[in-house]
Amino acid sequence: MSDKYDVIVIGAGPGGYVAAIKAAQLGLKTACIESWTDKEGKHRLGGTCLNVGCIPSKALLEISHKYEEARHGFADQGIVAKDVSFDLAKMMERKEGIVNQLTGGIGGLFKSNGVTSIQGHGKLLANRKVEVTDKDGKKKTYEAENVIIATGSKPIQIPPAPFDGEHIVDSEGALEFTEVPKRLGVIGAGVIGLELGSVWARLGAEVTVLEAVDTFLPVVDQQVAKDALKQFQKQGLNIVLGARMTGAEVKRKLVNVTYEDSKGKQEAKFDKLIVAVGRRPYTDNLLSEDSGVQMDERGFIFVDDNCKTEAPGVWAVGDVVRGPMLAHKASEEGVMVAERIAGHKPQVNYDCIPNVVYTFPEIAWVGKSEEQLKSEGEAYKVGTFPFAANGRAMAANSATGMVKIIADEKTDRILGFHVVGPQASEIVAQGVIAMEFGSSAEDLALTCFAHPTLSESVHEAALAVDGGAIHIANRRKKK
User: Fold this and answer.
1) Which is catalytic among the residues 65, 418, 451, 459?
2) Residue 131 CB burial class (10 angstroms; 0-12, 13-18, ≥19)
3) Catalytic residue list contains 451
4) Cut 0.90: pTM above it
């Protein structure tokens, strides 16, 4: 087989493998390079998301939520479940089974679409040549008309708390605990920190989350964020805001943490410490000096609006470029790039990318928050509807949170769509579709929603934008 391809993709995560499949579907001879191996040294596709990120964390979140509900939610519904316990080893086995099924599935998709899978570390050289180093250190060079870089990201390590793989771990290590820590510390109250903290809190750990900034989830609409914070605190998560970590030292199998907050210097002891302060682009040994691709000081690759780098025929997608580090954003960019290589002219609408925190309640949003619109001086109007007034949510014993819709004051066009509550990750898709089609709040208000459903809350929130909600009292309009 020739070593020259129409497209070579470096990285087989959600951006890379999707780009490779789409390129092959468009008739382009395509190869995808991936260095990931499992504990047995077997080649694994799917990148961080499928192997140690999105999928395994959601498996544990789902399992632990079912356990939590059995312990504390069944009795209210007339279900008697005495002495409910869990088997952590079995939970981990199920998580791994899901991961294995999905990563293996990508291999099957590669075969059915004619994508050549190459194992090894890819490095971009000049003139769209890619050097691949296999696990034995042997090197081989491939050529391509186009190269797509999709190498993803990895956890940020902070000097006060270096990872030791046992007591101080990153998000990957937090998915591999063999027993529930009695006291668990989490550095960072972002998406990853809250999700991982939630898993272990449900299974019995005393969880303390230390967050350096004073605002809880500053990127989230603050009405929604404050509602979520109350629920997390009710669940027993001890979230300390404005806590700047200064050190972590392991002594006698305990992690001694020091931090500073508004009250001064503080100390805490944990059995395990998860550091979840963010991720950085994985660009280690990725580019030769003459590759023509430029990066900023943080390791992000410079690209234009269509993910094209400054080097001819070289593209980059996903976590290695600007924008949110989200698997679905990476996939959409991968599809866009493959289609552009094939001569089409698609674009990603970055204003309509949903964000989700998979806690319970879930938090999801698309578009702008009230805080953003205020800072931009935009005139807007708001409609909210609580799940406490939704019959389906009440029947499901999940009547917490709300749907919030923000629309332009003059045009009524939807500018932001925010949900905290049951199945927020699914409900937000309605907002994404509405905004993608340029819908107004009135468009949703005039749409018929099935009853009883959680989605009726979207209908009511849209009606509430102009004071017309049916199942809650509306705010009186100012005269």
Assistant:
1) 451
2) middle
3) yes
4) yes
